[in-house]
Every structure is written in structure tokens, then in C-alpha cells.
Amino acid sequence: MSDNGVLANVNPVYYTGSLTVCDNNWHYENIRPGYEKFYYISDGECVFEIDGEKYNALPGQLFLLPINSVQTLYTENGCTVKKYWFHCALSCGKHNFTDFVKLPVFIEVDDTEYVESLFCSILAKNSDGSLTARIEQKADILKLLAYYIRMTNHTDSPVSSDGRIAYIISYIEDNLNRKLTLKELSSIINFNPSYFIRFFKSAVGCTPLEYIQKCRIEKAQKLILDGELTVQEIGAAVGFGDSHYFSRYFKKSTGFSPTVYREYSK
Fold it and tell me: What residues pair up with 37 in beta bridges, in sequence order?
């Protein structure tokens, strides 16, 4: 799938955002959010550690933090940071944009006025509940995403287009509420389990069981943000019969308990 094809199917959903100044006590450690984050550094500096890589965030840099990456964010050495930011979902059907397109964590902005104007427009439209404002907000997020891609001179590296992988992925995502075994999944495409693991990992980048757990946590994050189900109901919906085990596993995966995650994402 080309970049144009991916962008044509991205449906951005804005969650929350602001223009904030963080003091030298700002610190979040080893969190794993189930959404993408955009940060534009306007003044000062801070540190982003993403999947073990450390980045000194400086004025004029625009960051796109991928969904489910392990993130530690903080200020150090008495510094403060002024930043535009927002959290959003960049969905491509049942998948996420950053699953399709692997981008650098940040870019150097060459048109600060343009980028700041997009952030201001995106944030301002959140207070307007009209359909027009929501559509325009989606368009602004896509403009920011397109600018980000253009500045990277990115060549897309899509997930496998093999129809068997697409079918297995769809099957997994439709059956997250119950136990899924390697024997069951491999039999669907008539592979033995050992070869199926290698086949799946080569196409997707992780083992089938790792992918299943990743999907369960991502679905749980979305259900928590929807706010309609209890923690116990969410756990059952993603295949965890024991709500206490679900809460422990969710915290291990994201850095937050389900309850704190819901509050943090508001």
C-alpha cells in the first residue's frame, strides 16, 4: 500500500490536547498509550524516551509518538517546556496508521507558522461541537500528518499484502473475546504450527500470540476511552475472564491501571 493509499483511508479521531507549559517536575514514566500523540515544541526543552531511544526535544521540532510505544516523558536540569500537543487515533480500518507506515519519531519543522496554525485550528475546533468543525478538525490533522510525511521523504514499508495474513489478522480481531490457540490459527490456512509462527512473524513482525495480546490491549484501550463498559466487562470483551488479571496485565502493558488510564486520557 502506498503512502497515498494509506492516507486516503486514515480516519483521525481527536481525543484531547492543549498548549501547555510544563515545569521541571513534569514526568511520566514507562507509559504505553493506545493512541498516537503529536507534540510541537514551541519553547524550552524536554526529553522523550521512546522504546528505549532518548530524544532531546527542542524548539521547532514536531514529534509523532506511535501508538503502544513505551514512553517516558520528562523535563530535566531545571528546564521548562512550552508545547502544543494532542492525542488522537489514526485508524486505517481495523488497523493503525503507524502499523502501516514507520516514520521517524520527530522532524525539524521548516515552516513554524504553518504548523502552529494547524495546531491552533485543531485545538480551537474541539470547543465547537458542530459537524462542520469536526470535519474541519479531521482535515487539519490529516494536513499535519501529510506535512510530517512530506518532511521525512518517506518511502512506505507496508505490512504484508498476503491474503492469508489479512484473513488471519481479521479472524484474530473478530475473536478477541475468547481463547485463541496456535493450533486453531494455523489450521485455518493449513499450516503446521511451527511454520505458521515463522510465516506470521515474517509478515507482521511479531509472533501470533504477541499480536493477539497487542490487539487485546489496543481494543481494551479503545473501550476504556469509550467509557460505556466497566473494567470487568472490558476484560471479558478482550478475552480476560479474570478482571484482576486483566487489570494487572493492562498496567504491565500500558503503565496505567484501567481506571487511571481512563482519567489520564480525558
Answer: 65, 87
Distances (CA, A) of 46 to 37, 52, 238, 244: 15, 16, 36, 35
Torsion angle, alpha carbons of 239, 242, 244, 246, to 10: -10
Average pLDDT, stretch 202-225?
Answer: 89
Domains of the chain: 3-152 (2.60.120.280), 163-264 (1.10.10.60)
- 49-101 confidence digits (pLDDT tens): 999 899 999 999 999 999 888 999 999 999 999 999 999 999 876 667 876 67
The grid coordinates listed for 143 are 494536513
Which residues, 6+ apart, have CB-to-CB distance to 261 below 8 Å? 221, 224, 250, 254
Helix (H) or strand (E) holding 86: strand 81-92
For residue 159, count CB atoms less than 10 angstroms from its CB and return exposed for 0-12, middle for 13-18, buried for 19 or more: middle
* Stated pTM of the model: 0.64
Asked if 173 and 151 count as a contact pair (C-beta separation under 8 A), the reply is no
Contacts of residue 167, Cβ cutoff 8 Å, sequence gap at least 6: 188, 189
- Which DSSP category does 127 fall into? G
- The residue written with cell numbers 484531547 in the block is 16
